[in-house]
Write a structure and sequence with these properties.
Subunit structure: The complex comprises the extracytoplasmic solute receptor protein and the two transmembrane proteins.
Keywords: Cell inner membrane, Cell membrane, Membrane, Transmembrane, Transmembrane helix, Transport
Distance between the termini: 26 Å
Number of domains: 1
Largest sheet: none
Subcellular location: Cell inner membrane
Protein name: TRAP transporter small permease protein
Structural class: mainly alpha
InterPro entries: DctQ, TRAP_DctQ
Oligomer: single chain
Number of strands: 0
């Protein structure tokens, strides 16, 4: 298997997992909130834990979704300088952005993992559910780990890509939105 083949397979596996996980998280959140509203107004029996669970599910969905945002190049970026330079230089600037973004995400993964370790040692529990709070906070290092892998994949794809024109492909929202419509 070639390097690009490996990363394409990894990309496909990650995409499948992330999309299914987001569907599951959002459907669970919707169901819990819907049932909480019904219980509160029809049965007059509030589900005190529902708000906390919905919050934690939303946090997890946001961090997993951020990884898909990296894959689809929909994160906000300032690219006026990149579009003002020749295509070969655009490619180098994009790769520099991939490397810096990877380093940023890897650093926050490391910081998040250390924080989770401290939370595990402290034994702190969530207010309503009384579950270990690190389950909720683990979304941060998991999300940044996924984003790190996505930036690495983006770097490899662009490194092995034959075309030198990267405009409207991975640099702006319009290109990403167009690619999303084609799927």
């Amino acid at each position: 298997m070639t390097i690009i083949g490996f990363f394409k397979k990894l990309d496909g596996i990650l995409t499948g997992i992330e999309e299914r996980l987001i569907y599951l998280l959002m459907a669970s959140m919707l169901t819990i909130v819907f049932l909480a509203v019904l219980n509160r107004f029809l049965i007059q029996l509030p589900m005190s834990w529902s708000e906390e669970v919905a919050r934690y599910l939303m946090i997890w969905a946001a961090f997993v979704g951020a990884s898909l945002g990296v894959k689809n190049s929909v994160h906000i970026s300032v690219d006026a300088l990149v579009h003002a330079i020749p295509p070969a230089a655009q490619r180098m600037m994009t790769q520099l952005g991939n490397v810096l973004s990877f380093a940023f995400c890897a650093w926050f993964f490391y910081i998040g993992a250390e924080f989770i370790g401290r939370l595990m040692d402290a034994g702190q529990l969530s207010p309503a559910l009384r579950m270990p709070i690190y389950y909720a906070y683990a979304a941060v290092p998991c999300g940044f780990a996924l984003m790190s892998v996505r930036y690495l994949i983006s770097f490899v794809y662009l490194f092995y890509e034959k075309s030198s024109d990267v405009r409207n492909e991975s640099l702006n929202i319009e290109g990403a939105m167009e690619r999303g419509k084609k799927k």
